[in-house]
## 1
Amino acid sequence: MPHGIPDYNLATVEREVPATEPPAWEVNDKLKVVGKRIKRTDALAKVTGTAVFTADVQLPGMLYGKMFRAGIPHAKIKSIDVSAAQNYPGVFAVHVLEEMIEGANPKSGEKSSRYPDIKYAGQPIAGLAAVSADVAEEAIRLIKVEYEALDFVVDLDEARKPGAPVVFATDVDQEASDGGEDIEQGLKSSGNVRGPSTRSFYGGPRGDLEKGFAEAELIIERTYRTQVQTHCPLETHGVVVDYNQGDVTVFASTQSTKNTRNDFAKAFGLPKSRVRVISEYTGGGFGAKHALGNFGVMAGHLSKISGRPVKLMLDRKEEHISAGNRPNSVQFMKLGAKKDGMLTALKQLSYGTAGVGLGAGVGRIAQAMYDCPNFKTGQYDVFTNAGPGAAFRAPGNVQGAFALEQLIDELAVELDMDPLALREKIDKSMIRKVERERGARRFGWTHKKAGSDKGPVKKGIGVAQAHWPRIVNLDSTVEVRVMRDGAVEVRSAVQDIGTGTKTVLAQVVAEELGLQTEDVTVLIGDTLFPIGPSSGGSIVTGAITPAARNAAYKMKQKLFELAAEKLETDAGNILLEAGTFALKNDAEKKISFKDLLRRMRVEQLTETASRSDDYGGFMVGTIGHGELGSVQFAEVSVDTETGFVQVERMVAAHSCGRPINIGQIESQINGGIIMGIAYALYEDRVIDKSTGHQLNPNIDQYKMPFSFEVPDIQIELIEDYGGRSSTDASGIGEPANIATAPAVANAIYNAIGVRIYDLPITPAKIIAALNNAKNKNDE
Amino acid sequence: MNKFSWYDAASLDAAQKEVNATVSETLQPGTADDAVVYKAAGIDLLDLMKEGLSRPSKLVGIKNLPGLDKLAFDSEAGMMLGANLTLARMAENSAIKENYTALHQAASQTATPHVRNMATLGGNLAQRTRCWYFRAIEHHCFRKGSTTCFAHTGENENHAILGYGYCVSVHASSLATVLTAFDAMVEIRTAQQALKVVPMKDFFVLPTVDRTRETILEAGELIEKILLPAPGKNTLSHYLKTGSRKSQDWPMAEVAVVAELSGKKCRKATIVLGAAAPVPFVSEAAMDAIRDKVINESTATAAAKAAMQNAVPLSQNAYKITVFETLIKRALLELVA
């Protein structure tokens, strides 16, 4: 199989391949459909509005669900009176939730009262279904809840103090979601602080930290802070549930048809075979849509009670306060190095809050990115009275990279080295070496002294790197069907959250069958089809495309047998190219794909195949230099008199194994960079400390980037063959989002000569930092 | 949003007969259930209704009233702007661009193209503050009838540095900042169909005077037009705003300067700050500092410093002083650039 990077170290590697799987593809240059810019198969449906998202689903007799949410951040519920809502004209069902399935939960499972305790403002309590959304909204106001209010804490630093109000009185656990930040099970809590977690799939501490610092010629200690970011998908979380006496259909805006089905079956004590989940189109998902959620359970009960389908979509405010977020962090970093730049020791201590949930680790990027013999991390979860965190596009790593990649930049400044040259020295990853080289060339990187521009508006450049492990999921099965009229169909339960999964499946099958993308119909996002992986962890392309190719290959073998009969030869003598079966040594003896199918004795042939284990073994289990690394370069301008920052240009050098669809990959990288800029400069969930309520649960005062904030983005995409599966592809969604914020932060430092240690880097912080620096100089 | 009925008024008289409350009155506790209010574009009102802060029983549509969207310019008489003019029309109007530069600049930088296509001049001036405590149903704040200003000690990065009392909100309208600088007059039609003309600066009400409102408008009263004096000879204007984003952002700070020049010398200037105080803040100190001075880096800086002399920042917004100093200085220098 091809192995390595074209133009650098491309070679071949021997792999043991299961008998049912196809021989290796050559590099993309030699392929017809894979590795090209292919228009999305659903582009027209999306731009013309015919694509049906969950928010668009209308069923006969459908009711509209609405949740009643806690008005205070911490309380015990004394009583709930739903009678007025129940009697409101047009209300068909009312339900009070008995447990919370989101966030962390006490291990004991014991309940202190009939109702779940309120642990954050906006926690769902009850819900109802009515004939219209308007009626539901009016009726929900009639629900009365009597609380016994408790002291609360919403701030990370306050919550860590002794004597702070305690969110969970006993130890808690929580399962990590697909692609979510690791959650080490069984850790103890003290007050609101749980942990530390010191191990990950990269192993535990290594070397001897004390010795490492003793050997250091230079030690840098810094503290970095990151904010809480909310996901803000265009389509909010939501479902339409038709309970239908236990033959359930759930339309869901989800990243996992599989998990949604499993959660529903569990919540309602149904066999998984009685629950069908459909997600033909999902309007964005960044890690928080992996489960059914309390709202999904609520919709299930309301549909069960009313006997009608119930639609329950969260509104934008509910989305902000209850549907997940990226936990914040404070990271205490200590780095030891030799004067030549070699690292001797790295210590990381972090605290973060996922509100009432777990998963505030910082991703172990510090553990895995650089060559450093002595390393130790201690990562603590801190509970606060705020909505539960969730996986969010490279969970942990985005926070971790902001600290690590500025720390390395600071080391370069201390050593008076080019930060790119320093990384060249301490980073062993081959792919990032190539990315640095290609990216720097495209960017025109020349080391520039910080704050050296004249005038109030200063330009700066910065670089940062990303690490993301390559993860595979074996719940990846694809069925390929061919029909007598020539139709080719691909089926899998995997969902397309906007990344282009449908299109890559069509490409892979078309490539294998010598067809074009448009010859293949892709039907996905339905648990009636063979199981698909969750869309998280940048797993999907690497997991599902080999299954699709394997199934198409099996189908091709069948068709070869058929063609051999028609062409009166052996199957081994036949080639399939450009829609035609022909003899290898006599191209005149041929039959077209369509003609062959027309002559089938049966109406339809079906082949199913799954993802097998990686040919070369999984990446994880070793200290990995992330295979899905990236290097990003930023150019910014900073108005030092108003604090206004404009990101002018980004160059992003990326790899994702064998690229399948160049346009879609670039689109993912663009999105990752824009989201990273938002994280660096704009987005910030603000909760009032005295009331516990979020002050900006909207997209007016919660600031997202719009068109003027999008820089000139240039992408260097590098093919990186590993001989790991029949497509050798990987995902790109998460690696695209990791390096951006530190690259921008390093560029801001380079522009103004003062470093900002907490996110987002707002004009207020820039002005304050510059004024502080000026006052110090004046002294 | 609550249920409400809708009446699309065909005439001013008919509209005024229906209305019995101001939007501000509907935000106070104990408002009657039968409040009837005006709706022009509804940009501000619908936000307040969606949040559940305002629950009027009836909206009276005034967007289609005949004659309210007129614009007229006469070099002797000045500019007349109908209250229903959209921000988009103001932004593209050449008479405004040529004679009232700062107004053109503010109208074209406010909000988004979509909002500017809908939003009206009258609605823009009558909108309520964007203070996030005021805008949130969960916070029963001082301006909504309680005794607590949460921002005073809470999250106040976006709040006032000048001219505030207990309430530290800032006024939301950029047009108000600019029109105050132009000494515009507001022509109001009272509930009794009489005309009342007041200077722009008297149109706005400080919370220290009445915390429940931001303008002098009474129930049933309607802004009919805005009158700008004829552009003075040798008079130039400039408007600058800054925020964290370039796209659709409420100003972190904004400045409108209207000055009569003689060469590079400033005969007199009106300097108004937005997002600085609960109403557009006329900086007498800056105006005094630049009067009869040649505008240059040092005099502009001195005027900017003078403007901030009495600023008292809150816990999170000291940065605004630097930003305002920058904008005032740059706006003055732009006049002579």
Note: Chain A touches chain B at residues 71, 121, 134, 137-138, 456, 639, 641-646, 681-682, 686, 688-691, 693, 695-696, 700-701, 703, 705-709, 762-764, 767-768, 771 (CB under 8 Å).
## 2
Amino acid sequence: MKNELFEILQFGIYSASILLILIGLYAVLTKRSLIKIVIGLSIIDAGIHLLLVAIGYINMGTAPIFSPGYEDAAATMVDPVPQALVLTAIVIGFAVTAVALSLVIRLYRHHHTLEIDEIKNLKW
Amino acid sequence: MSGAKLLFPAVILLGVYVFIHGHLSPGGGFQGGTIVATGFLLMLLAYQDFTVSHHVLSFVESFAGIFFVAIGLLGFIDGGTFLQNFMPVGTLNDLFSGGVIPIIYILVGFKVAAELTGLIYTVLNEKD
Amino acid sequence: MVGTPVLLIAIPLLAAFLIPLLGMLWKELVRIIPGIVLAYMMILSASLLYYVLENGSIIEVLGGWRPPIGINLVFSPLTGFLTTIMTFLGFIVWLYSYKFKRNVDFEPAKKYFIFLMMLVAGAVGIVLTGDIFNQFVFIEIVGISAYALTAFYTGRNSAEASFKYLLMGSLSASSLLIAIAIVYSQLGTLNMAEIASTVHLMDPTFKVIAMIFFIVGIGIEAEIFPLNGWAPDAYTEAPGPIGAAFAGILVKAGIYAMVRMVFTLFDVPGAFDFLLAIGLITLIIAETAAVKQDRLKRMLAYSSIGQMGLVIVAFGIGTIEGVYAALFLMLNHAIIKPLLFLSGSYLVFNSKDKYISEVNGLGKYLPITSILFALGAFAIVGLPPFAGFWSKLSVLMAAANEGMLLIIALILMVSVVEIVYYFRVVNRIYFFEKSKDVVPHRPSFNALLSMIILGILIIVIGFYPDSVTGILHKAADDLMNTEQYINNVLSVGKSLTN
């Protein structure tokens, strides 16, 4: 019974992460305000990080930390490598969001609007 | 009179705890640095005349970065490869264990805190 | 040997941290230190390349953890060759932009040089690394430096071009992360050599899906169609030397990552045909778009995208002559296109919109710059005896060896189109009258020196191509030989007793 519960949970987490990616993609592609597009990029990042962490899960595993009383946890840990990858990816996503927001501030100062349809000085 | 003055040391303490114990519990350099920057953000929002000196932040940031690369190069000269461990690896779960990793976490914590505080300060104090 | 490959990434990082500190002591140091660092990187990379051509690849392990668990750097003939080109170009760009338009002031100069060094260090990192997640991190470093450098001028349009680049770059980085997630979940490793040796155990559906996500992720840097919408805007709005850096350094790293993925990591049949098709589409669309441009830097940007399409076609031919021709094309493009960008930047220095009609008659006022621009134009369309002739000849010969007559016909037609739009500009420079409201700006001594160095290289390679063919043959051999790559890396893992 516990096994089926974990299966459903894993299926739920995978589908939640793909749903987050699709919601973020929808925001980037269809919204017209610049800030909403940047928020959409953040949501896509969140979805992918969730996907990466969920991949490292091993059935009935414990957290990958050694603490007193759990010294033999190495046998049943979940995979710590995706968690390290996600740490790096979070920092990178944060830096890109910071650059994006500073660009949005500059765009607002020049064009006095946040609609992306108005900002098309550079064409084909 | 707001309670931010009372909370500020507690938040800084929490951040420093997180990045010093990076090798023992969840957390590490980036997380601890962000918590410290949040403490500064609290003070900047609560008080109008709270300032942080831009020069000090630049100094801390540059020094932390230089020491990080210097430790990597020291590992190079000592052992043979970049960032190799050259400090004693103590027993498991001790505070002074794990070789060179706690030092790197402390440096990263300082760098991230200085950088984020500088960023918040610049954005909040933009003229025009 | 003056060092090891990891210093090619660690030293620029150290210098980038030192610059704000030393800038507080003496302001000129902000300009001098990047020059010393880039010159050191160039010398180190050239001496390591010389060593590697005699003795085989250097595999450098980081952090003491042996591969395939740890991260390793691979300095082989192919990667060393690309690194030497990139660091040389970085040095030339520094020499040119010592005091250029906006970075004569201290504050912008600090940011400009820090980001320039991060750009070169990140691109070198993409080429040297042997681990796919490490490659992702370096792609992001290069991306952030490129977004910041594109938005360097505070005019009206640079923020828009940079935002467009940022949007497409972010989406493609997310796609790359999904590809890494799929590969890790199926194979359990992130090391390139280990992936190459176990990829035949992967489920074919997952293999194709992972490859598609990889191509979308890396295609942005490699500027393949349809992922190159950001490129004309970014090249136009960035400062002139930065456009040269993008064209010479950034796309080379992107194409290397793509080629490494197709040749070494995955063994999907039909990948070469896909490269051929997409290279041809990129080539044709970019060159025809270049004809109807009326701004100089935009035309050069489209031409650069087209040349990269030709390089991908040469890689897609799949044989060792094809790879040799592609590497020769990359070398020539890396020397000629920056020369065109650098001299073109002085030809339209004082104009706001950089229309081509403003270069009329500047042959009398800026003699050396115009001669160098004309030299670059002749070389890139493939006129003998300049450098571009030998590379185009190798591509055509490699295609002829495989009997791909349609490709030969298309390449020749596109070359005619190139001649049209380049000679149009050269014609205007020499044979038209200068209009009254254009004020030519004489280039400074360091800018002239950097352009002349590139021009001399073009002539030397054109008259004496054997100086580089030895290196190119070894590099092409190295790319085709997957087993040697796997053995080199994994044997280091077994022999280290750490």
Note: Chain A is about 65% helix and 0% strand.
## 3
Amino acid sequence: MAVVAGKAARVAARLKGGGSALPGLVVERIDPRFLAHALSDLPRGIVVVTGTNGKTTTTKMLVAILRQHGLRVFSNPTGSNFTRGVISSMLGQIRLGGQVDADIAVLELDEAHALKFAATVAPTHSLLLNVARDQLDRFAEIDQTAELLARLAEQTTRGVVLNLDDSFISRIRQQLADGVDVCYFGVDPSVAGRLPELQEADVRFEDAATAPEPTSDDGLLKPSDERSFEVVFGDRSVGPLALQQRGLAAMINATAATSMARMLLGEGFDEASVVEALRQVRPPFGRGEVIDADGRPLELVLVKNPAGFTVALGTYGSTPVASMIAINDNYADGRDVSWLYDVGFDSLRERGVAMASGVRAYDMALRLRYDDVVVDEIEPDLGEALSRFLTVYRDEPKRIFCTYTAMMRLRRDLAERYDLPEFGAETTA
Amino acid sequence: MDASGDDGMSGAKGRINLVHLYPREMSIYGDLGNTRCLASRLRWHGYEPVVHPHHPGSELPDDAHLLVGGGGQDSGQARVEDDLSRNADRLRVLVDRGVPMLMICGMYQLFGRAFITVDGRRLPGLGILDVTTQGNAKRMIGPVVLDTAYGDVVGYENHSGSTVLAAGQDPFGNVKHGSGNNGTDRTEGAATANVIGSYLHGPILPANPALADALIRMAVEQTGASFEPGEIDDNVADQARTRQIRRLLR
Ligand SMILES: [Zn+2]
């Protein structure tokens, strides 16, 4: 009964062009155990990927690695990482008995929803990426966010992969149930000096607990240059390989995905397949996606919290190009823009910022002023700003840093202008 | 941007000691932006700012001209309480001397008379501002517009404590949009002598330059000189503020 009603709602929502979470809402009302039942019999289990930054990229990478190994993987589409979104995306893949037709599920869930999800279905595995401040309206404190992740780990039945270099995550080990496997992912000591650029120091205190010594079950990132790297497990290694997405953060995401895959696949883990899979992963929508704009590359970079913006500036700052920053303050962006003052914009000083846009365009410009970054133009209207930016800088490479709802709007305009696939179209595979 | 350049005059008007209380523990949600704003504006006005980060266990400088503090997590607040009570007398001396202070959110609560926890425990504060805060489960979150002595002020509140002013305690402002101290009496923050407590992040100063300059004026007067403002182009700050006001009071 529930399945039929949900499918009907899904068709209705498509016709209206509605959001991806609506049909799930209908099913959840009808049968709260729907989710538990649908995922109950997956032979290889249910993997939850969570943490503040990098969920979408890491999930995509893990799914690609598992598929390359021949598994049939169910996953929720990008940007729909709530329980309801999971249900929505299931409806197309459900067998007659109401169960999902796959070997394994890999689900991207945000911290609060991961816990809600676990209350219904215990994950067999979880991959915990990092903790940083995000969406302050929902999670007031970083301590609280860390607590949510610890509780998720406690409810995981078979195996947990933890971030060795994030003390909030690595110390979760002490809270795991007996018999649950633990592995870590992290960076090789040779790049440990670059970690601060990925973490916020201001709200972290020195931690008495020291990080554990990595073993040959733990994956360590060893970059050879800006683009290529290996993931080292003791005396074995995956790579060298280069990703399509740039930067240290993406390499760490690949290391996390590889470590989780190795735990899941055990004997069946094949280094060459991992390399093959990771090479082909395209940056998710808006996460360093490169669009061909009149023959010049336009990079679209989603920024949603201080750690993420800092990483993005670190990743792209070495190659300054014409830049636009678009800041909205809708619910999905985080309504408070205070966090812009926890990001240093020095790397933009030399080239300046061509355009500040979004509902909080003037606040962004004001923030830049305090870092002595010159802003050429301020235009709150996103459509107007994009069009000016593309025209004035037509013949050079460009980059746009934007918050979530600003990205949705800009991506839609760009899709129309340059005939790109619509959001969601790439996730049906 | 004109006034930000080095015109050879920088710092010529005198040195101002700016103390940021507990920048590690108590400056979540961009409150460091207030320090950054004051330091830059001092420079643009022709003064030389010297920023002293005050960490638990270190000495508060005697010649402080201006103090700022921000909000923190519970774990951060717990880490500063001892240091704050150790420095209570010195802080009161500075208050009596008329040293301007801007205390946001968690530090505003700690500058109050007491904090009553959800389970009824009474934690004494410094008592510099005559306010009492009651911890409660409901968080007051959202954009704010205030009517203050410095004109309309915009910011963003995010607090679970509900604060009540004692009789005779002036608020910092009256709420035109948002919750303010407690969501019922339309007051926001508290002001005594040159001390301002407020829940407003945003951070509060960059988009409200009149407030920033009022603090700077009082700080300069602490040196015995009178404030000679420089020329600052505040068009972007004014736009940021008035657009928020228009949007929220519509
Ligand atoms: Zn606060």
Note: The pocket of zinc ion is lined by residues B 29, 71, 105, 158-159, 199, 201 (CB under 6 Å).
## 4
Amino acid sequence: MSHAAAHEGPVSLAEGNVRLRAGGGAIGTVLIAAGVVAAVATFAVGIGQGNFKHALAAYHIGAMSSLAVCLGAMFWVMAFHLVMSGWSVSIRRQFENAMVLVPVIGVLAVAGIAADVFFMHGQLLTWMNGAVRQGDSLYEEKAAWLNPVRWGLFALLYLFIWVYLSQRLWWYSTEQDRTGAPRLSNKARFTSAWGMPIFGLSLTFAAFDWLMSVDYRWFSTMWGVYYFAGAALSGMAAMILVLAAVRRSGRLSGAVTNEHLHDMSKLVFGFVVFWAYIGFGQYFLIWYSNIPEETSFMLARKTEGWNALSTFLVWGHFAVPWYILLWKFVRRSWALMTIVCAWVMVLEVADMYWIIRPMVYGGTGVHLDMWWLDLLGIVGVPLILAGLLVRKAHAGPLMPLKDPRLPEALHHRNYV
Amino acid sequence: MSSIHPDRINAERLAGLATAPPVPTPGWDASLEDNPAVRPPLVLNNRTFTEVTDIICGYTENKPGKWWFPVFGFTATVAGCGTLLILYLLITGVGVWGLNNQVDWAWDITNFVFWIGIGHAGTLISAILCIFKQKWRTAINRSAEAMTIFAVICAGTFPGIHVGRIWMIWMVFPIPNSNSIWPNFRSPLLWDVFAVSTYFTVSLLFWYMGLIPDLATLRDRAHQRLLRSEQGPRVPVLGLRIDRIRANVYGFLALGWRFSSRHWHRYENAYLLLAGISTPLVLSVHSIVSFDFATSIIPGWHTTIFPPYFVAGAIFGGFAMVLLLLIPARELYPHMKDFVTLRHIENMAKIILATGMMVSFAYAMEFFIAWYSGSEYEQFAFKNRILGPYWWAWGTMTFCNVVSPQIFWFQWARRSPLTVFIISIFVTIGMWFERFVIIVISIHRSYLPSEWGMFHPTPVDVGIFIGTCGIFLTLFLLFLRFLPVFAMAELKAVLPHADPHGSHGIGA
């Protein structure tokens, strides 16, 4: 889109600009079906080949990456409300669409490892595996936390918090579509205020339970922040991709412009740096202090072929996008940002891969001979998420049409 | 439903295109407008450009209020006493502090981190709010940045004087070899020295560059008065006109600023660049301060969340200090409430609540992971915080940093300057205790029974800390007296009449 399109002139709020064409959601159904098939096939192959652990790890990587998108989107919706942001109103509905998918993606994320905890005796989450934890006094220390009852109840609690918060915020926004009542904006802000700390804690402990406990001996106080950094980054990147697709279909003309993209891209840039800051801080302190209980995690990812992925993350997740996003013309180009954001999404998956996958074969190497199982497992939940997002985008208006701050968004300029 | 920007309302009214707004209810601060369709004004009472200039320059040009000299005299006396105690320390050695074999880092480094935290907040507040285009920053950025400089000066005092045999301090400098000695810093804390000094330099540049147009305004006003009249206040005995001194000093400091569009263009670019540089710098420097502890293997010091936890703590304590300074100032200086509105105070209270929760989150993570780690040493370190002999310090920290800001969930509390002031005092105390808790409680009981000890501060410990508070306040009072307290040029830019496009300029 040219810069001129951001200029004056009434923005059309006609149906043709703020809704996608009816029936276009069919592709969403196809994506969902493909995702379900991939997920089922992953487990079928995994069980069939006697390698449930690998299949579960692959599925879990995709699921946690997808959950990061939904939770990231929820964070952004709450952040926009909290700071009474005006510019973001016209992009907010897409974030809300992703946020409100938390019930589905959350359940899918927890389903795989719940099956491991409750039925497969801890093949991936080895603290559930009697053979592994046998005689391990360290496990005994943690048994009050790492047990199926506590784990299951807390998983339900996290899901409940996310579902409740997302549904409440969704209701305020869609109710405002109907009534136009300005007070609903204030109510959404209030919900975001008390919701944010609860959201932060639930995300952190979910990251402990569903990611960190994959290596139950290991621990890091930074862990929740690390997962959050990736979530906020991939949430924003994913929504740029969604908005780019919506604009390609000729919608949101004048409502979501290069100016909005520019600001979203700045936030992507910011969180690329934030992720690196958190990742580096965690690594550096563990490396420098050199305490065996802590270095085990890093050691496993620096040996047996995993060092290549560690190095790739430093360059791919940080250095390359950081450098590219320094350029203003990139940050203002939908085409280029589509490539950058797709890359960022892939690297978020790579980050989850880096966390989960080394645990599958212990210290015996990368084992890429089953790469197709990795691929099959990883794409499952993301395809379902993509399909649901497509359907959701087709289900209602593409932006909150009666938000009192919408005019600010429609006039948004960066003054550069 | 349309969104009407208050700037536009004001601009239309000033242009005679709209009627005056209804007379506000007495005591109602228009900045507190809570209708999401309306952006509340950032400056109250529809001040014109001239009024803004007159009011802000008036703070330095007119005689200070009757309160200023007694308060300045008091803080300067405290600062002087503190300086004398530092001299006593230098002459006598660090034995005059309460340090002992077990607790060999206590108030010195606690005070350092306390001040450096406050020092980091000012630039962070200013630069981050600038990058996020938060226009309300114009009311607080100048004093926040000034506070940064003064706090870093106070902070820098402590590493300088805590080195032990101060007469051997030349050993840390890379001076030529002498007496077959190879002078060498020989400490990993060298990185902290460079981090803090780089930070100080950039903060000073950021602050000073922002000051330049306002210094030029003060220069020009003094010069105009000189041209207009031969009469005016003079320096006793010397007979030199004070405006002559002003014109020369402010003129020297203004670096030839002439308000040309080219100057403004350069200024805007440089300002944004410095804001962009300052932001990661602040984060990295306070992270490095956290590394002073976290790179060790001492339970209670070594934990991975330290870098962002320290940064959040700095913002938390920094906003509290800004409020501690600005709330009394807005009561004491005429018309300052037009610039530092209740909305500004409310916004800062919200940030204190948010960053207070982040700090609380970090405390919670430390406790949880200490337990989850299964490491008995980690577990002891944290049990000892609550149940050990320093339980009162941990309790004070928790009450001040975790409990007290929770009152800001209530709107009335955020909008009550007195309540915000009291909570800011709590937060400031709490942030000092946070550093004390981390530093002293973590090291006062080590692995062997013989490595258990207590720290008892001496009057010199207490006196030097109070002395630095005196230095800080004295410098801030001088800043209030001699420099523009607000960034006038920026403040004018957020006035409605600065926006010729009316509604086109909507955006916060």
Note: Residues 1-7 of chain A have pLDDT under 50 and may be disordered.
